[in-house]
Amino acid sequence: MTTNHRPSQATDAPAEGAPEPAVVLEDVHKRYGDVRAVDGVSLRVGRGEFFGLLGPNGAGKTTVVEIMEGLRRADAGTVTVLGHRPWPRDVQLLPRLGVQTQASAFFVRLTAREHLRTVAALYGADRARAESTLAAVGLTEHGDVRVDDLSGGQRQRLAIAAALVHDPELIFLDEPTASLDPQARRDLWEVLRGLKGAGRTIVYTTHHLDEAEELCDRVAIMVRGRITALDTPHRLITAGATTTRLLVPAERLPLPTARSLPGVLNVTTDGDVVVLETEDSGPVLAAVAEVAGLEGVRTRTPSLEDVYLQLTGTAG
Ligand SMILES: Nc1ncnc2c1ncn2[C@@H]1O[C@H](COP(=O)(O)OP(=O)(O)OP(=O)(O)O)[C@@H](O)[C@H]1O
């Protein structure tokens, strides 16, 4: 698909009198040898915004986030985070940031509670704050378990708690729900919504498209070091995915009949359903009703995942 998505916000000048954005990147580049990991990225993250960075493995997301965090220096371009340059490391800025990475370090001989109290103390936050953060990520019951005895998902939640315990203004979360079970994932969504409700700004990378659609105000989709789309999930879906899928029980709709229906662009099978793709579902539904009846027929409207797969060229 050719896309008319443009990272328009990326180059828009902020409105007169608008609050200063939390993050501004302008034409940022970063190479590792011959690899252009970040190849001219410009974007703004507003104060209080929940901003998602999506893209396939190796797209450059972590590098962009690490440049924002002050962990890596951009080769070129300008980077402003809460009004500061994050590189060289700025000690005024660090306590205002919360960072959770895939490789978070723990004091493994400590219990979860002791670990969090220690992190809190490093930032000058008190024990009550450590306790409330432990509760917010659902770890109160496991507070006395040693870090090396926690499950992967519990450790993940502890890493998130450690990023939040000093009540930072800007929070970076790198695939925070990667190893969580479905219930823990939903619980964490509530924690994240709570943070947003409290006015925090969140920059968030994930491979869960449903999660990005659910949580993010805007998402940027990166491919090979560049931003190929940047907008609200809703606008990306509306602009990018024009087809609807109708799912019909396969035993009632032979494939040749499905292919002959007017308005059907593509027919595939998925297990025991026939999937009809159409830009105009009304007439196709009417035709399906006539030849197969509507019992068990479902429609699937486009999702952020459909748009993502089109933009990243990994659609099946
Ligand atoms: N320290 C490094 N040295 C050399 N190349 C690197 C280094 N870090 C990343 N790269 C390369 O830069 C590119 C972007 O990597 P990056 O980790 O930023 O991508 P990503 O979008 O975060 O991927 P993932 O979803 O797998 O975490 C990749 O080609 C990667 O191999």
UniProtKB/TrEMBL annotation:
Keywords: Antibiotic resistance, ATP-binding, Cell membrane, Membrane, Nucleotide-binding, Translocase, Transport. One of its GO terms (molecular function) is ATP binding. It is found in: Cell membrane. It is a peripheral membrane protein. CDD domains: ABC_DR_subfamily_A. It comes from the Bacteria. Residues 23-249 form the ABC transporter domain. Its EC number is 7.6.2.2. InterPro entries: AAA+_ATPase, ABC_transporter-like_ATP-bd, ABC_transporter-like_CS, ABC_transporter_ATP-binding, P-loop_NTPase. GO terms for cellular component: plasma membrane. It is an enzyme of class 7 (translocase). One of its GO terms (biological process) is response to antibiotic. Belongs to the ABC transporter superfamily. Drug exporter-1 (DrugE1) (TC 3.A.1.105) family. This is ABC-type xenobiotic transporter.
